[in-house]
Amino acid sequence: MVAARFAAQLNVQIGNELAAHNQYLACAVYYDALTLPQMAAFFYRQAAEEREHALMMVQYLLDTGAPVEFPAVPAVLNSFEDVVAPVALALEQEKRVTEQINELYRIAREEVDFASEQFISWFIKEQVEEVATMSDLLAVVTRNQHDVEQIEEYVARNADSDGTDPTAPRVAGA
């Protein structure tokens, strides 16, 4: 049902999503250690979201009868020079994931795999939101790097209340 080339690349993307999960955990712990609870909570939520994305991909492969293979995940950066660095890293990571998702879409289209094209479309929309969120956060953190209370206030004000998207793909194990 699913194109073999798409399934193989989706397995790679599962690893990318899990790597993002781990990196966001490291960012959360960094902010937690600095007693910045809003920034820590933001990155803990981001980590959970990346894990959920990986499990959406797992569920899609299961649903289509394709094999699920978890690739090795690279080590994360655990130390940061200042409060700006984790957000800058996160923005670059989101831009990279956007390119990876776009590549998956391209593969689905080349393989004339309509189901996979439709599945990955949700992630394209999600990446627009992720890049915008991280871009805004980077601007705020850069502007207020010496006034962390302003950063904390911004994050608290802009925290998602629920974040549930009824159009999101199913999550494995949910």
Keywords:
174 residues; mainly alpha; 71% helix; 0% strand
Describe the structure.
With 174 residues, the chain is mainly α. The chain has a single domain, classed as Ferritin. It is built from five helices and no strands. Helix 3 packs antiparallel against helix 4. The longest helix is centred in the N-terminal third of the chain and has 30 residues, at 4-33. The protein is elongated.
Per-chain topology:
Elements: H1 4-33, H2 37-63, H3 85-110, H4 114-143, H5 148-157
Helix pairs in contact: 1-2, 1-3, 2-5, 3-4
The residue-averaged pLDDT reads 96
Strand content: under 5%
Structural class: mainly alpha
The parts where pLDDT drops under 50 for at least 5 residues are none
In CATH's first tier, which class applies?
Mainly Alpha
Number of helices: 5
Distance between the termini: 23 Å
Provide a short characterization of the protein structure:
The chain is mainly α. It has helices spanning 4-33, 37-63, 85-110, 114-143, 148-157.
